[in-house]
């Protein structure tokens, strides 16, 4: 059920979530660019603050999305959706948005690095252990998404624990 | 003699107060009600008399401060939230005043949703939704997004969504308040139709014309502060 609803909702809501998707992609692209440019994997003093910033920004973007989409919780509860079903719907939707945003952002960041490298004729990838750096990059961004999704799931859980009448009041 | 099981809905000494503090609003104080199975009852009264509160209490959307509410013989005030949700999905269909449809889904998907939540198989969902929409002369709307419908059309979809799981009890909270006279007549004609014959229906309204279609009319008076 949760998958049915989440996928249908995600598919049709894509025009609404595209701003958040763009924000997540933009953040991830920026992070990728700065991470490679400043060789973040070898400099923990740069890497840790960057990671905290990106994780907070990704979590905020996802929380904003959750806040916008959680208005339907009251209706779902009134129609007979269990609390766990509602939470699962949001978990699937937010994870999809987060993962798609992060991967497209990383690809965008790498593409812009290639463009800068070829335009300025500097090899920005020099001395980069690609597998290690890419792994660190992906896991950093995904940990940001994970933090965001967990915060959102907690928020959805609290909202869906309300009485239906309260949840419906938030729908209007 | 009628026993508690002969009734679809029974309210015993129900008390409902909104807000705590120094100025609580007392909506019901020791209200009692008995609705027989298959009855069509209109609840009429002025704004603020507690019509929506009554529907919310019977649907299990809200809980009373005191008293018992029996729906199909089950005291819903004793049920936990999870049990109440399941009970509602199986037994009660609610038509909201504001249609509360999910705008991103199509008419078909909105009507299908209660069946999905009940775990009904896909082929059966398809059969039931299509049959019902055809019966309501809405077959042509199946693939339309709800966001493209008029208010009246949305209210018909709202009604279809409440009926699709074939609930024993249908609760309607002022379903006609925002509709134009033509759509009102369509909806009223439908309410008098075959599909409602075996159902227990409680409809709230403040329009006498709407109340006339019911077998019985209950008047709720507004409590003076």
Characterise this structure.
The complex is a heterodimer of chains A (about 170) and B (about 220). In chain A, about 85% of the residues lie in helices and about 0% in strands. Chain A is an all-alpha fold and about 170 residues long. Chain A is elongated, with a radius of gyration of 19 Å. The longest helix of chain B has 14 residues, at about 120-135. Chain B has a 5-stranded parallel sheet with strand order 6-7-8-3-9. In chain B, helix 3 (about 105-115) crosses helix 4 and helix 3 (about 105-115) runs parallel beside helix 5. Chain B has about 220 residues and is of the alpha/beta class. Chain B starts with 6 loop residues before the first strand and ends in a 6-residue tail after the last strand. The interface between A and B is medium-sized, with 27 and 30 residues.
Chain-wise SSE layout:
The complex is a heterodimer of chains A (172) and B (225).
Chain A: H1 2-37, H2 44-69, H3 73-79, H4 83-120, H5 130-160, H6 164-171
Helix pairs in contact in A: 1-2, 1-4, 2-4, 2-5, 3-6, 4-5
Chain B: E1 7-18, E2 25-36, E3 40-44, H1 51-59, E4 66-71, E5 74-75, H2 81-91, E6 92-95, H3 107-117, H4 122-135, H5 151-163, E7 169-173, H6 181-191, E8 200-205, H7 208-211, E9 216-219
Parallel strand pairs in B: 3-8, 3-9, 6-7, 7-8
Antiparallel strand pairs in B: 1-2, 1-4, 4-5
Helix pairs in contact in B: 3-4, 3-5
Keywords:
heterodimer; A: 172 residues; mainly alpha; B: 225 residues; alpha/beta; five-stranded parallel sheet; four-stranded antiparallel sheet; 9 strands
Class derived from helix and strand content of chain A? mainly alpha
Most extensive protein-chain contact, per-chain counts: A-B, 27 and 30 residues
Seen as an oligomer or otherwise, the chain set is: heterodimer
Measured distance between first and last alpha carbons of chain B: 39 Å
Taking all residues together, what is the mean pLDDT of chain B? 86
How many whole angstroms does the radius of gyration of chain A measure?
19 Å
* Binned strand content of chain B: 15-25%
Largest sheet of chain A: none
- End-to-end separation of chain A in angstroms reads 25 Å
- Helix/strand order of chain A, N-terminal first: HHHHHH
Q: How much helicity do the residues of chain B have?
A: 25-40%
Task: Specify the number of helices of chain B.
Answer: 7
**Uncertain stretches of chain A:** none
Structural class designation of chain B: alpha/beta
């Amino acid at each position: 059920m949760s998958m049915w609803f989440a996928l249908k909702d995600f598919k049709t809501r894509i025009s609404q979530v595209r701003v958040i998707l763009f924000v997540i992609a933009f953040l991830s692209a920026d992070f990728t660019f700065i991470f490679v440019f400043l060789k973040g994997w070898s400099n923990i003093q740069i890497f840790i603050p960057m990671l905290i910033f990106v994780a907070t920004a990704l979590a905020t973007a996802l929380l904003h999305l959750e806040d916008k989409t959680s208005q339907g919780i009251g209706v779902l509860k009134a129609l007979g959706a269990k609390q766990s079903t509602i939470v699962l719907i949001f978990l699937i939707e937010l994870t999809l948005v987060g993962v798609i945003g992060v991967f497209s952002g990383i690809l965008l960041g790498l593409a812009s690095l290639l463009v800068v490298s070829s335009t300025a004729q500097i090899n920005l990838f020099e001395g980069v252990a690609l597998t290690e750096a890419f792994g660190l990059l992906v896991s950093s961004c995904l940990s940001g998404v994970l933090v965001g999704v967990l915060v959102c799931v907690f928020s959805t859980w609290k909202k869906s624990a309300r009485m239906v009448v309260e949840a419906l009041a938030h729908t209007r | 003699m009628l026993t508690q099981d002969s009734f679809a809905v029974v309210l015993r000494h129900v008390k409902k107060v909104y807000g705590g503090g120094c100025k609580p609003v007392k909506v019901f104080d020791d209200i009692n009600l008995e609705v027989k199975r298959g009855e069509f009852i209109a609840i009429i009264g002025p704004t603020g008399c507690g019509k929506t509160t009554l529907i919310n209490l019977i649907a299990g959307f809200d809980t009373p401060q005191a008293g018992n509410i029996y729906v199909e013989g089950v005291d819903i005030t004793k049920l936990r939230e999870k049990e109440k949700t399941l009970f509602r999905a199986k037994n009660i269909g609610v038509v909201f005043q504001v249609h509360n449809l999910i705008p991103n889904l199509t008419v078909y998907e909105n009507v299908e949703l209660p069946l999905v939540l009940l775990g009904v198989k896909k082929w059966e969902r398809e059969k039931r939704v299509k049959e019902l929409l055809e019966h309501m002369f809405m077959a042509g709307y199946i693939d339309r997004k709800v966001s493209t419908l008029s208010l009246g059309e949305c209210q018909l979809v709202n009604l279809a969504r409440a009926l699709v799981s074939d609930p024993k009890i249908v609760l309607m909270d002022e379903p006609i308040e925002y509709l134009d006279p033509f759509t009102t007549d369509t909806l009223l004609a439908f309410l008098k139709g075959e599909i409602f014959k075996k159902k227990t229906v409680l409809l709230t309204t403040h329009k006498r014309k709407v109340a006339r279609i019911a077998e019985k009319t209950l008047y709720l008076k507004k409590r003076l502060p």
